[in-house]
Amino acid sequence: MSKLKPGKSPGRDNIHPEFVIHQSTTTSGWLCAFYTSCYQRLKLPKTWRRASVIALPKPNKPAEDPKSYRPISLLCVPFKILERMIHSRIEPVVDSQLPREQAGFRRGRSTADQVTLLCQDIEDSFQNNEKAGVVYLDLTAAYDTVWHRGLHLKLLRTIPDRHMVKFIMETLSNRSFILQTSSGQCSRLRRLKNGVPQGSVLTPMLFNVYIHDLPDTVSRKYGYADDLAIMLSRPTWKAMEEGLNEDMGTLVAYLRRWRLQLSVGKSVAAAYHLSTREARRELQVHVDNKCLEVQQAPKYLGVRLDRTLSFKQHLEEVKAKVTSRVALIRRLAGTTWGASAKTLRISTQALVFSAAEYCAPVWSRSPHARKNCSTDPTEDWDVTHDVEASGCLDVGDDCNGQSLLSESLPEVLLLLWVGEPSHLCHHANTLRRDLIGCRRACGYPDASGGKQVAPDEVCQQHVHRGRLCDIGPDRIVLEVQRKSTLIQTVQDEDHLEQVISADSFGLNKEVMKKFHQAKLFLFQ
């Protein structure tokens, strides 16, 4: 109940979240007893099975096409609480069964992780003088076409408590909805035989369970819920295309078996390499005797990935988006009128910096990013300069986009596995070189050698721990950035306990708590 947010739309029972938030202790006890009775008897009120559906338009889609809208289910607030209770109980069990490549709506995982992993593998292919082919898969109405019987079978394989599985399936059965328009008109009641409701807390987890057993492929898979991608690197075009076509055939057969449909018209293929002579060559990947569309800079999880990973087109789009939003913020501020400073700051952080810093660890080392983050007035774009000019935030004269990002980070800056071969410190792979260079932020020479990195060049890098562990870690480095940067080498879990409790760090209690949480992250 504490996670309910006021101001949200009610369901068909017209019970608002505020009614539940401000209820008495007696009412809370009665509601818990009612939930227990529903779970034991495997029965739910009919009103909870009905949802009000609103259609949100998809960006850059024709308004007259019904497929250009995304249906969102407005569920009853008491039913949402019950779903959260179920979610909290089955999340540890389900999360342990999900594959590493699936990061969708999982604790401690984000879209930036998947984009970073994909870019890292593409950079690896560049270093090996290979070409990387990527296919971005698009599923037609993925959530709405989930087969209930197939989901029931996979839940039984994942969750050992069969009574809980029966209760979950009971929440999905006999569901119905009414479509509401912005003008207040409603459609007739329609029943659902398949699918999971969009807007439900359980929906992302149930979909992850439904596709958690994707078949093994030669290509590496990247998933964030229904946003799937596969990548294969080979020295020649022929070998790369043959491998991708074979893997696509395997995945399409799996999707058809479980009644999911691949949208051939929306799925995209792209090739990544450094050969200028072959820049116009298109990757040939076929599905059902149809060649997939080839794009030079497809968008994956909100980031455009061009052929050489220069991120030029992505930064141009971000620049245009941020510039328009800064212009909007400026209209709210004036010398003698306008919104308060607090309102302007909140609006700036929500509209401007959220867009400018999205997936910044991925593209921040691009040469185009260095140009765009300069504070020189003659350069193209500077977010902090524009925001400061609007009167929303005083960032100082010596601040650029990268330092502003670093200053907004918590004191625990980096916790990374860094056991890398020594030869990786010298090659041109910027992403991995920055990860290795982070442990030399104080200017201390590393055991593996290589150029030292100044403290002001350190930026946040958030990478899934399993990626670098695959290479064979030999030690852990814990770095903390405050007024002066401290560095400490940690050999094992016991040594980490000694470092955390050491007086030499001089850290406050909040930072100590973060260290204890980080220990679980490093050694689990």
From TrEMBL:
Transmembrane segments: none
Entry-linked InterPro entries: DNA/RNA_pol_sf (IPR043502), RdDP_mobile_element (IPR052560), RT_dom (IPR000477)
Superkingdom classification of source: Eukaryota
Domain Reverse transcriptase per the UniProt entry, residue ranges: 37-305
Pfam families on file: RVT_1
SUPFAM superfamilies assigned to the protein according to its UniProt record, in alphabetical order: DNA/RNA polymerases
CDD domains: RT_nLTR_like
Name listed for the protein in its UniProt record: Reverse transcriptase domain-containing protein
Organism from which the protein derives: Muraenolepis orangiensis (Patagonian moray cod)
